[in-house]
Amino acid sequence: MRLDELIKSNKTTIVDVRTREEFRGGNVAGSINIPLNEIPQRIEEFKAMEQPIVLCCLSGGRSGQATMYLMQQGFKDVHNGGSWLDVNYYKNN
């Protein structure tokens, strides 16, 4: 399934890895904010999430790092959604 189809399916967990301040400035409705630097300490939260997990940030850089880290931790169904604006567009169109 393509990324846009995954997001539209509403069967994904969307995690925004930007800072809390960035997240408060705008985000995808229903997304969860776990800043990139907190991911190692919050790995149990990721294990409890419905998969697939789509990660997003401002441009795709931090969400790419988070995707790679989670894959190294054994997660199989994680995806870099890129910009939160793109994820928001896919979710709403």
Describe this structure in words.
By secondary structure, the chain is an alpha/beta fold. It has a single domain, classed as Rhodanese-like domain (Oxidized Rhodanese, domain 1, 3-Layer(aba) Sandwich). It has helices at residues 3-8, 20-24, 43-48, 61-72, 84-92; strands at residues 13-16, 32-33, 53-57, 78-83.
Write the SSE topology.
Layout (H helix, E strand, L loop, with lengths): L2 H6 L4 E4 L3 H5 L7 E2 L9 H6 L4 E5 L3 H12 L5 E6 H9 L1
Parallel strand pairs: 1-2, 1-3, 3-4
CATH fourth-tier homologous superfamily: Rhodanese-like domain
N-to-C SSE string, H for helix and E for strand: HEHEHEHEH
Q: What is the count of β-strands?
A: 4
Strand portion: 15-25%
CATH names the topology as: Oxidized Rhodanese, domain 1
Tell the overall outline: globular
How many helices? 5
Mean pLDDT: 96
Largest sheet: 4 strands, parallel
CATH level-1 class: Alpha Beta
Computed CA radius of gyration, to the nearest angstrom: 12 Å
Structural class: alpha/beta
CATH architecture descriptor name: 3-Layer(aba) Sandwich
How many angstroms does the end-to-end distance come to? 17 Å
Helical fraction = 40-55%
Query: Stretches where pLDDT falls below 50 for ≥5 residues?
Result: none
Number of discrete domains: 1
How are the strands of the biggest sheet laid out side by side?
A: 2-1-3-4
